[in-house]
């Protein structure tokens, strides 16, 4: 046999043996660290889902800014299904003016809110008191001699987020779950309560104000719901109106993530929207 060919054959065997050895080592490393690889894979998937959910927020902003009312996205809380970068998106837009403003509720309205969510008896009375006390500013004047009230809440002042309601002493998860979707801290000054897209619990709370008829408010909501969107929402009615955008991004294997943002359309071409809050 030709020496050169023989040497080449030996070299090939050595190369194959080396590749096999390296593959075996690599396999052992992978097998030993498969838990770490799974973690990395999971984090990568979560990052992709988070990016898709973020994209869903901006897709909603674009849909809300469409000039044609017939094509513009609804703000009635209905779900819209889309696909983005391999993820299935569920996007919901809610009107903050169709929710009860926490900072503006008096004791009667707070009572109607908690009662409508299932609270009764002593717990209902306690929740109304805790709701009022949470927002009552403390007397911090050292010369007043007024001691801080016993059992003070986490802090005193307006609710900063809806989630703070969960910190009320007598609030439970089921009551909070019913209340959270119908209240807001982003009511702003863009107009009064609008029942067009309001849920019954929000209507019940707002109608507890003296001189307001719950049936009348519900009737207004019913009348509005029977008209097409272009009659309910004029072209410029969304400008300055705070809206909640909720996005759920789900992968093919069932993994999912959520994003929520409070957005406001400005009508300014240089800064067409503001993100007021995001989680």
Verbal overview:
This protein is α+β, with helices and mostly antiparallel strands and 279 residues long. The chain is built from 8 helices and 7 strands, in the order H-H-E-E-E-H-H-H-E-H-H-H-E-E-E. The strands form 2 sheets. Strands 1-2-5-6-7 form a 5-stranded antiparallel sheet, covered by helices on one side. The chain has a two-stranded parallel sheet with strand order 3-4. Helix 3 (107-116) packs across helix 4 and helix 3 (107-116) packs antiparallel against helix 6 (200-207). 26% of the residues are buried. Residues 4-10 and 216-235 have low confidence and may be disordered.
Fold topology:
Layout lengths: L2 H30 L1 H31 L11 E9 L2 E9 L4 E2 L5 H10 L4 H15 L37 H7 L3 E2 L15 H8 L6 H12 L3 H4 L9 E9 L5 E10 L7 E6 L1
Parallel strand pairs: 3-4
Antiparallel strand pairs: 1-2, 2-5, 5-6, 6-7
Helix pairs in contact: 3-4, 3-6
């Amino acid at each position: 046999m030709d020496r050169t060919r023989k040497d080449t054959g030996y070299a090939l065997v050595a190369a194959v043996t080396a590749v096999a050895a390296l593959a075996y080592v690599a396999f052992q490393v992978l097998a030993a660290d498969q838990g770490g690889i799974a973690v990395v894979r999971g984090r990568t998937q979560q990052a992709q889902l988070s990016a898709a959910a973020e994209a869903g927020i901006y897709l909603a902003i674009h849909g809300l800014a469409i000039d044609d009312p017939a094509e513009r996205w609804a703000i009635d809380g209905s779900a819209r299904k889309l696909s983005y970068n391999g993820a299935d998106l569920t996007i919901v837009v809610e009107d903050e003016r169709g929710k009860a403003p926490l900072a503006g509720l008096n004791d009667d309205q707070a009572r109607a809110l908690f009662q409508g969510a299932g609270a009764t008896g002593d717990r209902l009375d306690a929740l109304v008191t805790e709701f009022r006390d949470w927002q009552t500013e403390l007397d911090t004047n050292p010369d007043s001699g007024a001691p801080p009230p016993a059992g003070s809440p986490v802090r005193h002042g307006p609710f900063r987020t809806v989630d703070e309601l969960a910190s009320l002493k007598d609030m439970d998860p089921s009551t909070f779950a019913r209340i959270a979707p119908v209240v807001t801290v982003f009511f702003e000054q863009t107009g009064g309560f609008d029942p067009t897209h309001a849920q019954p619990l929000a209507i019940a709370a707002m109608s507890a104000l003296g001189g307001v008829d719950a049936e009348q408010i519900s009737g207004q909501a019913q009348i509005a719901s029977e008209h097409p969107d272009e009659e309910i929402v004029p072209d410029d009615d969304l400008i300055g109106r705070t809206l909640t955008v909720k996005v759920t991004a789900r992968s093919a294997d069932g993994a999912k993530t959520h994003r929520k943002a409070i957005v406001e359309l400005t009508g300014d071409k240089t800064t067409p929207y503001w993100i007021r809050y995001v989680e």
